Amino acid sequence: MRKNVYLCTYFFYMCGIVGYIGKQEAYPVLIKGLHRLEYRGYDSSGVALIDKQKELSVYKAKGRVSDLEEFCKSKAISGTLGIAHTRWATHGEPNNVNAHPHYSQSENLALIHNGIIENYAVLKEGLIREGYTFQSETDTEVLIQLIEYVKISNRVDLCTAIQLALKQVVGAYAIAVIENGNPDLLIAARKSSPLVVGIGDAEFFIASDASPIVEYTKQVIYLEDEEIAIIQRNEPPKIVNLNNVEQTPQISQLELSLNALEKGGYPHFMLKEIFEQPRTLKDCMRGRINVENNNVTLSGIIDNKEKFLNAKRILILACGTSWHAGLIGEYLFEELCRIPVEVEYSSEFRYRKPIIYPDDIVIAISQSGETADTLAAIEQAKAAGAFVYGICNVVGSSIPRNTHSGSYTHVGPEIGVASTKAFTAQVLVLIMMALNIAKEKKTISQEQYERTLTELVQIPPKIEMILKQNEKIEDLSKIFTYAHNFIYMGRGYSYPVAMEGALKLKEISYIHAEGYPAAEMKHGPIALIDQEMPVVVIATHNTTYDKTISNIQEIKARSGRILAIVNKYDQKVKDMADYTIEIPETEECLDPLLSIIPLQLLSYHIAVKKGRDVDMPRNLAKSVTVE
Ligand code: G6P
Question: What are phi and psi of 620, to 5 degrees?
Answer without folding.
Answer: -105, 165
